[in-house]
């Protein structure tokens, strides 16, 4: 079956529109000129222009509002989350984890339920019993950290943590194969300190424990 080729003229028109938006011709929230005017300015037909607008709408730069016209909703194309994560170095990902997990730990200390605590204890026990197989260790560690984030009861933080997991998993497995943890007991103790702070309902201590643990991980990776 023949595939419809992407219209090269529409792609070019989209690039010209994006360049003009980037140059400040139409500010954020501004309405673009009418279809006929814009098509004439770009030297393309109206159907080609509509296709270019559809392309930029799909990238979040423009928005067509029924009966009102086309408006500028972003000044540049932002890369999607997966692309950003694929390109990110492991240290960058750990820095983002510190931002997310230190705050999640503080919220967990304030909001955790008895069920949350039980889930954390189970995950910590499973982490202690994980065999020497690197994949198992990484997965058990991730499962524990996720119970802490979940206990914050903030779906956005949980979603952000989950987005990091695939990127992090591969990097952690690669790292631990090359450089096993120098002191597994101390590492496990750091997780117990975090859990104790959450159980004691101490947001400051929980955030600090999370930050200290992840910062030492970042130093090991660096």
Question: Would you mind describing this structure in some detail?
Answer:
This protein has 222 residues and is mostly helical. The chain contains ten helices and two strands, in the order H-H-H-E-E-H-H-H-H-H-H-H. A two-stranded antiparallel sheet has the order 1-2. Strand 1 (62-65) and strand 2 form a beta hairpin. Helix 5 (90-111) packs across helix 7 and helix 7 runs antiparallel to helix 8 (155-178). The N and C termini lie far apart (50 Å).
Characterize the overall form. Answer: elongated
| Helix-strand string | HHHEEHHHHHHH
Low-confidence stretches at least 5 residues in length (pLDDT < 50)?
1-5
Beta-strand portion reads: under 5%
Descriptors for this entry?
222 residues; mainly alpha; two-stranded antiparallel ribbon; 10 helices; 2 strands; 4% strand; elongated; disordered N terminus
